Amino acid sequence: MTARTFSPDEIAAAKAWPFEEARKLEARLKRIGHEGVVIFETGYGPSGPPHIGTFGEVARTTMVRRAFELMTGRKTRLISFSDDMDGMRKVPPHLPNQEMLAQYLQKPLTVVPDPWGSHQSFAHHNNAKLRAFLDQFGFEYEFVSSTECYRSGVFDATLIRVLERYDALMEIMLPSLGEERRETYSPILPISPTTGRVLYVPMLEIDAKKGEIVFEDEDGKKVKTSVGGGNTKLQWKADWAGRWFALGVDYEMAGEDLTESVRLSNKIVKALGGEPPAGFNFQLFVDEQGKKISKTKGNGISIEEWLTYASPESLSLFMFQNPKSAKKLYFDVIPKTLDEYWSHVEKYPAQEGAKALDNPAWHIHNGEPPETTTPVSFAMLLTLVNAVGGDAEVLKGFIRKYRPNANVAALAAADALTGYAARYYKDFVEPKKKYRQPTEQERSALSDLARKLKEIGDGAEEDAYQTATFDAGKANGYEKNIRNWFTAIYEIVFGQSEGPRMGPFAKIYGAQATSKLIEDALAR
Fold first, then answer.
1. Which of 510, 398, 504 is nearest to 453 (CA)?
2. Dist CA 502 CA 453 (whole Å)
3. Fold observed for domain 433-523
4. What is the pLDDT of residues 461-490, one digit of tens each?
């Protein structure tokens, strides 16, 4: 779909959260008199591969960026910043060559060898994974390496500014630290010239005019060094603030677990003479029981797992929805989210003005949602798989019979869904299937429905099958609790607590086949 144009009044009326964030950013820029290119940033720690949280941060930031561009017409950049100058604090247990890696503890990640031997360093390996990951989803970004910024001198002026404002930074940081850590804290971390490790040691002398420091090396000798050229780096919080200051970052969001870090980094960047970026703290994911998701516990979903059962666009929708509220991330949310995505796409062409801009599909597709939607829901396909098995070609045949006039794009979308449905059904639905015996009332109603479907026969409109389902329930005592009637159908015939609208299902599966499905369930 060609991107629509919107009037200033329509854009001003948009209420979706990316537009609210864009307005906060615009207010900040006006307050400080910023008229140049606007810098958005996301951060990445290359001690591990990119994950679903990485996707969420870049996707959400991109949504704000596109809303801001539409609202202001200004040029923007998105920096994906890798903290690859950080020292390796521990060897991740899943990596090969553990003994070799243990020799590089506290050394910058760009110095640690790649345990797989395919890249210049461990950080280079994971940075390559990050770029491939972001490219896979079509994000527009510029990769920036912390190591390159320190070693090339990009951060030199900021490091000298830290020396000039050293006491002010210490006043900000020390109250946030425990008593023991206060004794050794310094916002500047020297790199040992003898061991190459990142040292957490106090500064013995500071010379802001010369840009030099004196510290005690690991061998007990005093070392005088320039802070620039990669000889030092900033410690976390000061490092974040220093990055904002040096690169002129205007917008960056972060997880709610970093709320205190954001507060302190904001104070530090002000002490340096800069302006904190706009942004917000998004809530973290929780599991089905409401517990915080942990890699160690393995109670979450990886991005690879989500993409096994649903599309990247559905994952983008999940990230779009209520970012400031804690959200349950577990496998049962996938079917609902996937169908919600297609529902938003279907609604978009008929929406105008602010309603179109508030549609998640506009944000997921950078203002150009697809023109066609899938002719069958994911929930329907899951039930169809239940009835006919997971053969993708058989499923595609049913879809083409159900929607003979669907265009090529719609059928392609449905074809993709069949693979997702077959895999999701096999892994999550089939193991939980539990058929129950009908009561006498339910047996009578189901027998009545099977008979009505036979009488109508194949080829009728789905409304006819839906009406027959309602009529069978009402004729057998369900006129005041029709929901119980449909629950009975799902539990007895399909072996699950939820299921499809029976009209469309009978249409796609066939009235005669659906009737037999019911009869088989009654005979089971």
1. 510
2. 11
3. Arc Repressor Mutant, subunit A (1.10.10)
4. 999 999 999 999 999 999 999 999 999 999
The tokens describing 149, both together, are 């910024």
Q: Give, as one character, the DSSP assignment of residue 498.
A: -
Which of helix, strand or coil describes residue 39? strand
Task: Tell me the pTM.
Answer: 0.91
Q: Report pLDDT for 522.
A: 97
b/e string for 392-415 if b means 16 or more Cβ within 10 A? eeebbebbeebbeebeeebbebbb
| Alpha-carbon distances of 245 from 43, 212, 281, rounded to whole Å | 15, 20, 20
The type of residue at 29 is L
Same fold, 8-176+236-282 and 433-523: no
Per-residue confidence at 297, pLDDT binned at 50, 70, 90?
Answer: low
Collapsing DSSP to helix, strand or coil, 476 comes out as: coil
What's the pLDDT tens digit per position in 235-283?
999 999 999 999 999 999 999 999 999 999 999 999 999 999 999 999 9
Is the Cα torsion angle 425, 427, 432, 436 positive or negative in sign? Answer: positive
User: Which residue from 327, 319, 321, 320 is spatially nearest to 300, judged by alpha carbons?
Assistant: 327
In whole angstroms, what separates CA 353 from the centre of its chain? 27
- Of 424, 445, 416, 426, nearest to 336 by C-alpha is 424
Quick check: helix, strand or coil at residue 63?
Answer: helix
Check if the beta carbon of residue 60 is closer than 8 Å to that of residue 253: yes
Give the whole-angstrom CA distance, residue 475 versus residue 464: 16
Contacts of 478 (CB under 8 A, 6+ apart): 445, 484, 485
Shortest CA distance to 315 belongs to which of 296, 329, 298, 326?
Answer: 329
What beta strand segments (E) does 49-108 contain? 76-82
Spatial separation of the C-alpha atoms in residues 227 and 206, rounded to whole Å: 10
Helix, coil or strand: residue 43: strand
Q: Which CATH class is domain 8-176+236-282?
A: alpha beta
Domain residue ranges in the chain: 8-176+236-282, 433-523
Tokens matching residue 472: 């069978």
Could you give the C-alpha distances from 310 to 194, 273, 290, in angstroms and in order?
A: 51, 47, 23
Mean pLDDT in residue range 448-456: 97
In whole angstroms, what is the distance from residue 56 CA to residue 64 CA?
A: 12
Q: Tell me if 64 sits within 8 A of 109, measured CB to CB.
A: no
Residue 153's pLDDT band (cuts 50, 70, 90): very high
Taking only the tens place, the pLDDT of each residue in 394-429 is 888 888 888 889 999 999 999 999 999 999 999 998
Q: Average pLDDT for residues 124-129, to the nearest whole number?
A: 97
For residue 17, what is the enclosing H or E element?
helix 17-32
Q: Find the radius of gyration of the CA atoms of the chain.
A: 29
Across the chain, what does the average pLDDT equal? 94
Instruction: Record the tokens describing residue 424, joined without a space.
Output: 């999701």
Find out whether 232 and 159 touch, Cβ atoms under 8 Å.
yes
For residue 90, the surrounding DSSP H or E stretch is: none
- Residue count (the chain): 524
